[in-house]
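User: Fold this; tokens only.

Assistant: Input:
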Amino acid sequence: MNINSILLKLISIVKYLQKLTFYRSAFFYFQQKIFIKNFHFYLFIILGLILGGCRESEKLFNTQVEITRMDFVNFNEKNEPITVDIEISYHECPGNQFEVIRGDAEFAKCIINTGKKIGDKFLVDIQWKWNPMGYYRWFIVKLDSCERKVDPLDEVSFDLVEECEDYKVYGNVVGFTCRRIPSGNLIKVCPWFRRN
């Protein structure tokens, strides 16, 4: 190899390294530009991941309800009730809010021992917690002195919680409209109905 070919090789290597450095710096420049341009997007994603896991913790509320219906549904061979359905009215809440709950044999026996009947008022404990379906739920876990086990497979218990108001046309009441997702004054007075 002669000196000229070595010099030419060195010059081509230097030019190659210069190009490589230029491309590398250009790449980082554009990468920074893209990051800065999308900074709000990345910030939103990070905050969403952080706050997505933040929910209010489980709470226990208590209030007074009125029994509007009580049915002993199933009985064992000794004619003792093994399930009971109780319809309650949240008379302290605005509107006409009610719920039907089912309880097991222990719960039914305890309800009988309290001596309460239709029209009587009970103190209830309401557990309010996050549901994996993506919203908050409430469960009555205690009526008076009777503990209620909540069965996750219970398809009989249900609630009818809604806020209704007059529906007006040209200033005249022609009907009513109801919202099934509680909000406003109902949530202020009875916060366990909040779903989000």
